[in-house]
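Fold in tokens:
===
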Amino acid sequence: MFKNYFIKLVKLGVFPGCNYAIIYDDKIEINSVGNKALVPEVEINDVNTLYDVASLTKVLVTNVLITKLLEEGKIKLDDKVNKYLPKFKYDNITIYHLLTHSSGLIADVKWDEVHNKEELIKFFYNKKLYYETGTDVIYSDLNFMFLGFIVEKLYGKPLDILAYEKIFKPLHMNNTCFNPTDKKLCAPTEVTDKRGVVRGIVHDEKACMMGGVCGAAGVFSNIFDLVKFASMILNDGKVGNQQFISKKSIDLWATPFVKGKEGNVRGIGFGIGKCKITGSLCSDNTIYHTGFTGNTLIIDRDNKIAIIQLSNRIHPTRDNKLLMNKRKYMFNYIYRNIDKIHNP
């Protein structure tokens, strides 16, 4: 039904290729279009391609693990970060501030300031706040990197092991991982002077410096596994007869806790509602997240719709920003035609 539309986006240069899934009621459309790679040679895309999902890591892994800690009573939203990370110097920043991107921590790192993992971690702990905590909402990878540190400390295991044991295995996300071994299965991302063609290695420089595993980025996945994740949320946390995570927790993710000066609304881990990403036709009970490499996850709980779009829009260069301009139109188009899934 929607394949021709996504082929059109490939022809417009929005991305080299794309794998997408649309879930509506009991129907699922999954397809692959375009190319997996353009350089050093063209490779045709297919539905089994593994994508670097970049910041979708935040909601696929870190947000889920933090939520499980909340459910287990091991943490509270209003706990101060330095309760668990004593080197964290801001006494007024809580887990809630990190989850809602209202902490005031800077958005990213200037790469002339750090050269290795140790310097990167030191940088995290010593940077001044970008704005006063709680006065705005500005998305920052550092928020979820600190959340990842908290998860590892409280569970006593590395984040990639925890992700496998507590998320990927129970959700049967058998193709999802950090640091994939089959790099040919992966869609390449950027081509850089320093790293060449980045393929099967996390694109995000911070995550790469952390060994490919951190709370903000690093996960590789395919369209089938993300359908499993989205379906779990649409099913209020259930997988089959098992309650993977409580409906109360998913309701928390979808609660509009904070609104930034630019109008962006955040819940726990997710963005919420209509915006320049989701378009104008979704319900207010919609949660979403994106990934820098070219990925979007939208889950509309009222309309029982999930839209997953995976791509490597930064291949071969991050200068391609067409997806950012096209997203809202793409999702509006899908919403206007969603009923055709039942009668293609």
